[in-house]
Amino acid sequence: MTANRSTSDGLHEATLSEALGPRAARTRQGGRTISVGIVGATGYAGGELVRLLLNHPRVRLAGLHGRNRDNVPIADSHPHLSATGLVIDQAIPEADAIFTALPHGVAAGMAAAIVARGSALLDVGPDFRLHDPADYPRWYKFDHPAPELLAEAVYGLPELHRDEMRAAAERQATVIGLPGCYPTATILTLAPLARAGLIGDLAVDAKSGVSGAGREPKADLLFSEVNESVKAYGIFTHRHTAEMEQELKEQGERGSLGSRDANPGVATVDFLPHLIPMTRGILASCHVRPTRPVTQAELDALYAEAYRDEPFVQVVANPPATKHVYGSNMCRVWCRVDPRTGRVLALGVIDNLVKGAAGQAVQALNVLFGLPETTGLEQYPIAP
Amino acid sequence: MTANRSTSDGLHEATLSEALGPRAARTRQGGRTISVGIVGATGYAGGELVRLLLNHPRVRLAGLHGRNRDNVPIADSHPHLSATGLVIDQAIPEADAIFTALPHGVAAGMAAAIVARGSALLDVGPDFRLHDPADYPRWYKFDHPAPELLAEAVYGLPELHRDEMRAAAERQATVIGLPGCYPTATILTLAPLARAGLIGDLAVDAKSGVSGAGREPKADLLFSEVNESVKAYGIFTHRHTAEMEQELKEQGERGSLGSRDANPGVATVDFLPHLIPMTRGILASCHVRPTRPVTQAELDALYAEAYRDEPFVQVVANPPATKHVYGSNMCRVWCRVDPRTGRVLALGVIDNLVKGAAGQAVQALNVLFGLPETTGLEQYPIAP
Amino acid sequence: MTANRSTSDGLHEATLSEALGPRAARTRQGGRTISVGIVGATGYAGGELVRLLLNHPRVRLAGLHGRNRDNVPIADSHPHLSATGLVIDQAIPEADAIFTALPHGVAAGMAAAIVARGSALLDVGPDFRLHDPADYPRWYKFDHPAPELLAEAVYGLPELHRDEMRAAAERQATVIGLPGCYPTATILTLAPLARAGLIGDLAVDAKSGVSGAGREPKADLLFSEVNESVKAYGIFTHRHTAEMEQELKEQGERGSLGSRDANPGVATVDFLPHLIPMTRGILASCHVRPTRPVTQAELDALYAEAYRDEPFVQVVANPPATKHVYGSNMCRVWCRVDPRTGRVLALGVIDNLVKGAAGQAVQALNVLFGLPETTGLEQYPIAP
Amino acid sequence: MTANRSTSDGLHEATLSEALGPRAARTRQGGRTISVGIVGATGYAGGELVRLLLNHPRVRLAGLHGRNRDNVPIADSHPHLSATGLVIDQAIPEADAIFTALPHGVAAGMAAAIVARGSALLDVGPDFRLHDPADYPRWYKFDHPAPELLAEAVYGLPELHRDEMRAAAERQATVIGLPGCYPTATILTLAPLARAGLIGDLAVDAKSGVSGAGREPKADLLFSEVNESVKAYGIFTHRHTAEMEQELKEQGERGSLGSRDANPGVATVDFLPHLIPMTRGILASCHVRPTRPVTQAELDALYAEAYRDEPFVQVVANPPATKHVYGSNMCRVWCRVDPRTGRVLALGVIDNLVKGAAGQAVQALNVLFGLPETTGLEQYPIAP
What we know:
The structure is a homotetramer.
Chain A: H1 22-27, E1 34-39, H2 44-54, E2 59-65, E3 72-73, E4 87-88, E5 97-100, H3 106-116, E6 120-123, H4 135-140, H5 147-152, E7 154-155, H6 158-169, E8 175-177, H7 181-195, E9 199-208, H8 223-226, E10 231-232, H9 240-255, E11 270-275, E12 282-290, H10 296-307, E13 313-315, E14 331-337, E15 344-350, H11 354-368
Parallel strand pairs in A: 1-2, 1-5, 5-6, 6-8, 7-8, 9-11, 13-14
Antiparallel strand pairs in A: 3-4, 9-12, 10-11, 12-15, 14-15
C-alpha cells in the first residue's frame, strides 16, 4: 500500500503556486495530479472520501481538516485507515478542490473564502443543493449566507447535470452542491418517468442504513435501539424532500419543454424515510400512479435510453437489493408496471456513503477535472 | 415453571368423553380447562403457540403434531422450550380446539376430519381466510378442497369480526381463518379510514422481519444474504394482497352501508412487502391519497372511536417502531394528515409471530371460548 | 392488561404505616402485596424490572424514580411500556423493597437512608457486591461510603447464597448486592468445578450483547460501529473480574473446607469480555485446565448434583446458544472434558438483562419475602 | 469499469500454447498477463476471488467453473457482480494458475490433472494444508488420494512460508494449500510467541462471521437462527485445529532449532470457534500462559521484529476490531502481558473471506509469479 500512502510530512506541500490557476487546473489536466482537501474529514462521509481518494490515481491528498484537531492521527477517527499514516488538522487545506462534509449551514459560511483561493468547492452537505434561497429558511431553518454563490452552484448529479458541471469548471467560482443520499437514489430511479411526464401520484418509501444519520452519539442511534426494529422518521418534514421536488419537477419540465401542466403529479413528493437495522444502503421504493396507461415495453425503452451510457447506473432485470451495490458507486434501478392494477413501481438502490455521498463526490471531481468518470471508482460491490 | 410444565405422559389424556360436547365447551366455560392441540408445531408459529399457551391459565396442551415425528422431544425443533418436557408426535391431537400452522393447502385437506371430531379449528395458515373459493386458484394455485367449510369460516381478526366469531362458536363446525401477518398490520392500520370512505389511492409499503418467511432452509434466507441488505419481494403477486382487498373493501361497504361507489379507492391495494435484516416485526407504512380533504381532528376522532375499547390496539402519539411491540400481542397505529400536501399517512406495527400469528390465534381462542380476550396474552413487549 | 396497570394516582399510596414493619414484611408474607420501588428506572435494567414486576402477582409498584424527572410518563424512557400508564419521579419511593439500578457509587451513598426507612435494598449495581472494602478503590476508583452496610450485604446469587439471603431478610438492615451480568453467567457455569477443586488454569472468554453497556449515548455503541464487528474490551481491568475471583475462591474454599491450597487455580481469573453485534445475551466460554484428570461421568455428576433443584439453571445436553434463554430468567450450562487433550470446557448462557440483572433481582426479592423463587418469572424464552 | 470487464467471448482464449511453459511463466513474468481460472466459483470464496482478480492489473480471468453450469451468467450466483458480464461453466479452465474453492476431498481428486496441464494449483480448501497424510482420515474422514502431491505442497501463508512458496513455483508441480480462515488469524497472532518458545498453556477462543460457513442452505444458518444469538460449535473437533497445531509446532521448532522440549505447550491447541451474528470477520482471542515471565517490552520487540516488513500484518496499539479490516487483506495483531496475572493475551483480526480466503490466495499468486505481494490487494478496509 506504500504507493498510495501519504505521509504527514507531505500533507501541506500543495500550494497555489504549483497550480496553473484554478480554471486551467480543472480543465486541462494532462497527467497532472489534482490536489484535494477534505474539510470535515472525521465523519463517515469524510472517511469514505479518504478511502476512495487513496485509490484515485490522479489525486494527491493535500490536507484533512477536523474541528479542533491539531495533527491528530487519522486512526482516532477512522481506525480502519490507520495504515495510511494520515493526520487531521484544523487548518483549511489549500488545494485544487475542496470537499466539505459538514453540518448544514457551515460550508455555506466557508464557501466564499474557499473559492477565493481558487479551489473548486464540492459540498457533500446540503448548502448548495437548493436553487431557491427561500428553501433554506423553509427546510433548513437558516438564511443562506452566500446567495450569490448559491446562484452559481450546480446540483452535482452527473447523470442529470454533467454539462452544467463541466461549464461550472470553467467559471471563476466553481461550486457543486452534491445531492443527498435519498435524492440520489430517488431521482435516478424516477428521472426517466419524470421526463416522460408519467408520474401522477407519487409515494417514495425509502429505507436507509444507519450510517446516513452520521456519527454523533445520539440515544436513538445506539445499537440496542436500532437493532431488531424499524421505524419511519422525518415524517412530512425530511429536508431531502425539497431536493427531490426541485429535481423531479425540473426533469418533468425538460421532458415537456417547459409545460408544467403536462406533469402535475410531481408538484409534491410524498416522501417517507425509514431507519432499518443495517449500516449502509438505501432502497427507494417509488409507488407511481401513472398519468396514463403505460406498457412494460415503453418503460423498458425509457430506462434503457436514459442509462445506456451511464457507467454507474445499471438497469437490472431482477428487483435490486442494497447488498448488490455495497461499497461501490453503483446505482441499480428497476421499473415495472403491475398488469393487475396499472400502477408503476420503480425501485432503486445505492450505497448511501458511496454513490450517496463520497463516491458521487469523486465522480463529480472527475467531471470537473476532465477525467473519465470512473477513475478511482472501479471497485466492484463487496458481498456477502 | 412447574405449574405450567406438561409432561409427555399427560399429553394424550384429553379425550372427547371428558368434554361436554364442542358447542357447550366453547360457550359456557365456567372454570373448565380447554384442551388444545397444535398441528404443525415445529415451525416458528407453532413454537410461539406453545410458548404462549404454556402461560395460558385455562389451557391444557393436549398434543403437539409434527410431520413424521414419533415422540420426539420439543427441544429438537425449539431448543428454547426444552425445559417444558413436551414431545412432538405425528398423531393429530384430539382436543376442544386445534390450531393448524401448515403450508397452504394442507389444513384445508384436514379440516373436515378435525371438525367432525367436534374440535374448533383455528387455522394460522391461509386456507380459510378468503371468502371467495375462486381466490384460492387465483392467488394460491390450488382448488379449495372444502368449499362448504370455507363458506362457514370466519376471518379471525377479533377487532373486526368478534361477533361473527362468537356466532361461529355456537355452530357445529367452527372454523376460523386467522389473518396473515401483513394483513393484520395493514387492516388494523387502515380500517378506520376504510370505514369512513377516506381511502382514495393507496400504497401499502410493508417491512418485515425474516421469521415471517418460515424456517425452511432457503439460500436467500441465510444470515449472510439477509444481513446488511434490504429488498422488496413478492412484487405484484404477494398472496396477502387478496386478504387486504377483501377486508378493506368490506370495511368500506360497512361504512357506507353497502354503497360501493362511496369508496372506490380500495378496489385494489398496491402492496409491496420488503425483507429487512431483523427477525421479528412488521411495519406497514400506508400512503393514502384521501377521497376528500381531511383534518387531523377528524382522523384522531376516527381512530379513537375505532380502538377505544380494544385491549390490543393502541393509538399512539408518536410514530411507532416494531421494537415497541416485540414479543407482545399489541398493535400500535398512528395516523396523520400532511398539512403541506393533504395526503394521509397511517403507520402500524405488530410482532409478526404474535399479533401476526400465534398471539392472534390465542386471542381468537379466547373469543371462541368466552374468556377475556387478554387471557394468557398479558405480557408486555420486551425491549431493548 | 388492566389487572396489572398501575395508575399514576396509585403510585404513592404505599406508606410505612400500612406495613407491619420491615422485618415481618419480609418473612411472613401471607398473601400480602409487596410494595416495590425502583430507583433509576429509566435505564435498561430499570425497564426490565418494570416489565417483570408488572407480571408479578404479589408486587405493587410503589414508585419509579429517575433523576430530574417530575411526573414524566414512562413512555419517554420506555416507549414499549407506554400502555402501563406509569410515571417517573425524582422522589425516592417508600416501599417494602427498593431496587437501585444506578451508576457505581450512587446507590452506596443512598443506602443508609433507604434501609433506615425499613426498606430492603436490592442493588442491581455493583456497590454491595464485593466484601472487601479495599476492592472498591482498587476496581471502581471510589472509597465505599458505607462500609458498615457493606459488611452486612449478601451477594445476591440465590443458587449460591440462598440461606444467607434469607438470614439477611431477618435483619434490621437488609442489603443485597446483586451480581453483575458476566459474573452470573461465569459463576453459575464454574461453581461445580470450583467446589470440586478442579479449576487449574482458567480463561473466561465472554461475549455480550450491547445492552449490557447501558443506554448512555457513546460513539462506540452506535449501531454503525457495533454492527458487523466484534472486539474485546475492558482488557485486564474489567470490574466484574473482582466478583468472579471473590466467588470462585469462596466456592473453592467451601468445597475444600477452607484449604486454599486445594484450589490454587482460581486465585486469579483471566477474564476477557467481548462486545458482539446483538442486543441481549451473554455466553461465557470457560477454558479450564483441570487440576487433575477428570472423566465426563464425574463432571456430569457434579453438575447434576449442583443444579438438580434449581428452577433457573438448566444443565443441557447440547452446547447452549444465547437465543435459548432470550427474555427469560434461565441460565443454561454445559460442561465437557476434551478426550483428546484432557482440558475441560464449560459454557454458560443467560439473558444479561434478565438473569443478569432484573430477573435475578426479582428472584432475590422472592427469596427475601418467602415466595416461591419462580413467582413472576415463569415466562419461557422467546425465539426466534 | 470497462477496463476490467471480461466478456464471455474472451473467457476461453487462454491456451497453453500462449504460455512459455508453466515454470517460466511463474518466475519470469515481465509485464505478461497471468491467466487464472477459478474452480468452484459460485461460493462466497469464489465470488471474492472474482471481485479481487478483476482489480488485479496483471491477471486475466480465463474461466470460472461451477458444477453443472453451462454458460450461466455470474449474476445467478453473485448478483453484485452482474456488471462484469462473466459466465460460469462446468469446464475446468486452462490457465497459468487455477484456484480451487471446493468442499474437502474434491480438489485433491482433481489436482493431478490440473498440474499435469502445467497450471499452478492454489487450493483455497483444506486438501493440501496438512503435511501428514494420516491427518486427513483423522480430521477430515477421507484418505488423501494424492499423497505424492501432498508431499510437495506448501502451506500458503506467505508471512511464514514465502521462500518455500517461491521454491515451489520453480517445480514441475506447484501446489499451494492455502490456510483456513481461523488458522490464518491464529497463526499470525501467535507465531512470534511460538517462535520464542513462550506459549505454555494455550486457549484460542475465536469468533467468526457466518460467511465462513459457506452458502449451502442449512437451517442453523438462517438469519432468524443466527441473529441475536451466539454459540460455540465444532467443539473439540474443528478441523482447523490440525493446521494450527502443525504450524505452531513448526514455528516453535524453528525458534528452538528443532528442540521440541523447548516449547511443550503448543503440542495441542484448545481451539473453540464461535458463530456470531455478523457476515464477515474473525477475531482470534488467544489466552496464553507463558512458559516463563515476560515483559511488555519483550513482546513488543518480538512482534515488531516479526512483522516489520509485512505489508498485510499490522501490529496495532489498540485492541483490534474486525471492522478495522473489513473487505481488505489486512491482519491486525495486538499482544499484551497482564501485569496483574502475568498471563499473555494476543488478539488478531482478519476478514475471513479476504485474508482468510480469497485475498490470501491472490497474495500467494503474487508470490508464485514474482509480483509485489500487494498487487491487486491495495484496497483499504471499508468502514463503517
